Each structure stands twice: as C-alpha cells, then as structure tokens.
Amino acid sequence: MSKKLFIETLGCAMNSRDSEHMIAELKEKEGYETTDDFKEADLILINTCSVREKPVQKLFSELGVFYKKKKEGAKIGVCGCTASHLGDEIIKRAPYVSFVLGARNVSKITEVLHKERAVEIDINYDESEFAFKDFRTSPYKGFINISIGCDKTCTFCIVPKTRGEEISIPDALIIQEAQKIVNAGAKEIFLLGQNVNNYGRRFSGEHEKVNFTELLRRLSKIEKLERIRFTSPHPFHMDDEFIEEFASNPKICKSMHMPLQSGSSKVLKDMKRGYTKEWFLNRVAKLRQECPEATISTDIIVAFPGESDEDFAQSVDVVKQVKFDQIFSFKYSPRPETEAEHFTNIVDEEVASDRLSYLQALHNEILDEKNAQQLGKTFKVYFEALNQGGFVAGRSDNNLLIKVKGSDELLGQFREVKITSIGRTILTGEILA
Ligand code: 5AD
Ligand code: SF4
Question: Counting ligands in written order, which one lies closest to the CA of residue 166?
C-alpha cells in the first residue's frame, strides 16, 4: 500500500505552488499519494505563512491537533515562511515535529524526510534552476514561479527575511513549463513572484537581459496558450512599456493587481514603498487610458505606525477615486526582523479596527454599484470548478467570478455568458447559444 501524504497550505499562491512542488517530489521519489484526511496520513505537512501574526499563532494550535489525532508513527513537518523565520524554535515548542523546511528549501523535502529533527532554512539557497518533478492541482491552469525572493525593503514586510534575495528563473525554463502545461491540455498560466515586474533583475548564472515585458511577449507566442495571468506586480515598476504590453497583448488577462498599501505619501515613505500617492494614481490613469476594461485589485494596510486620521483619509481618497474591483485589506501587524517592528508611534487597536471596517464598508458600497452595471453584459468565461447546486464557475478575462447552471462537461471550456443576476463575490449568468 502506498504511503499517504496530507498537506495543508496557508498563505499566498507562491505557497500553493511550493506545495505542488513538494507533492511532486514526494510522489515521484518516495511513492506518496495525497489524502484529505490527516488521520490516515503517514506524513503531515503544514506549509506556513508568516506575513501577519495570526497565521503563526494558528500554526501551533493546529500542530497540537495533528499531534493528538495523527496515526501512530506518522511524521509531522513544518514548511514555508514560518519555518524559515522560526527555525529550530518550532521543534523546541513542539518537540514532536520531525523536520522544519524553509520556503527557500523546498527541493530538500525528500532529504529532510529521512533525517531526525532536520532544520533546513537557508534563505540564500538557490533553487532557481532546480528541476522539480511535475504535479499540478488544476488541469485547467498552471502556476509557474518566475522568480523567488524579494529585494525590496518594505518596512512592514517579513518576506525578504523568509524568502531571501530575489533571483529570476531563466526564461527558457519558464517557457518550457508553460509549454508542458499547455501540452497537458490547460489553456491558462499564472505567473508567480513577489515582485513579478522586477523580473530579470538578477539570474543565478550568466543570462541575457530579459525583463518582464519581454518575458510576457515570449510566453504569448506559445500556441494554444490562451490566457496569461500574473501576481504580484509592484506599482513602482509599472513603466509605460509594461502597461502598453498588458493592454495590447490579447493573451494577457485584463486584471491588474496594484498593491497600494497606503494612499498617504508620508506613510508610503515610512513604508519605503518607493512611490507616492500621485505616482500610483498616475499609473492607474495610464492603465485606464490604455485598457479601460481592466479590473484593478489592491492590498491596503490600515493603521501602519504613525498613520494619522489625515493619512487614512488619503487611503480612502484613493479608494474613492480608483474604485477597485477587489481590496485585500489588513490591519498592520508588527513582524519580527522588520524595520517597522521598532516604530513606536503605534495606532490604537480600536482606531485600527474602525479604519478597517470603514474601508471594507466603503469598498462593498463601490462593489455593489459596479456589479449592478454588469447586469446584461456578456463575458467570455473559462470554466474551472464545480459549485454547489448544479453550478459551474469560472472567470472572465478581467477576473470576474461567474457561475452558470451546468455540469462538468463545461470544465476547461470557454463560453460566452450573459450576466443575469448579481452577488457581491460571484455573478450568475446563462450561456449564450
Ligand atoms: N501587516 C499587515 N499586512 C501586511 N502585509 C504584508 N506585511 C504585512 C504586515 N506586517 C500585506 C500587504 C501585502 C499582503 C500580501 O500582505 O498588504 O501586499
Ligand atoms: Fe514584501 Fe515589499 Fe517584497 Fe512585497 S515588495 S514581498 S511587500 S518587501
């Protein structure tokens, strides 16, 4: 009987791809099969996130549950960003953990498995050219890492300490991955990096100068590849050439993530984001001018140290001006080994909660208004998932989530869909003949 692997993935899309890599290595080299039930697993992996404090607390409570209820003899491994930053402290706090594997050490999964209490967390380890085995969760779209790490120094962010310096993956390897995905029948690729439009900044070895715009051009030449998505770009690196390629290349999906973080130029400076409110709005204007149909999503942090009422009003002002299609909003969470951890002008917890609620209510109002305008419109939807109640769901080119009545025959197919009713997170439509 094959050995069973249970893997829980927290955090971002990069973590999801790291989990796919670990599953692939464990399947091919160690004969594991995945299971959804941790109680029958021989190996339990938690792929952790450390970007805010909450998921870190969650890790230790979850570990306790796994330990109590796991099968006798099953191993527990902690992987990902919290593994990178806490290292052997995890084993000190939870001595039943068999190994700790950092976010930058994924390729060593089959090694640590056979060592007692291994801690592999070197954040300078270079996996940019490692030939991972193949495993993909979705047959309809494939994630591809295009760079690892991040060279920015945003004062709130722990990522550079957990994923190390930025290294781009050679474009030939990325194109090869994309080709494999398409050959397997998927029509969409999703490019991943902490800072995708800084692509080409540094390669592991000698490499021709290729920037993100050029990478997009090269990928879009792949026949039968229909959609290219990516996350996350950085507003600082959104030059005209990039926006123009985004707008004019028909294979690039028209949804842009533009992480604002704050609308106050003073706070942006304290965050060391490298742009001002004016630059951000200027880039949005350029994008809207070149590509009016594009949807825009963002990340906003409220109550960063020193954020005054006036600073917060600037974030509100940007939200009102841009009318984002999606906002991921967070209360600032102090993180170890970051510059902002030492900032003393902390915003009161109650004020922080009020600001977050205000922002979310404002966004919902904007969303209701925008969604109402979608009624009766037609979108080309790529169907990817079965939903409850006999529905099939997929996304429009500009990333709207849309469901129609239907069955699995629609999965992996494109259809023209007319919107017939509106919800806040999902639109409902009917397929046009
Ligand atoms: N506190 C709150 N939110 C944070 N993010 C990153 N670090 C922190 C932090 N210390 C948010 C940012 C980032 C998203 C992935 O998480 O908005 O874009
Ligand atoms: Fe963190 Fe800034 Fe890098 Fe994004 S760009 S991962 S926020 S340091």
Answer: 2
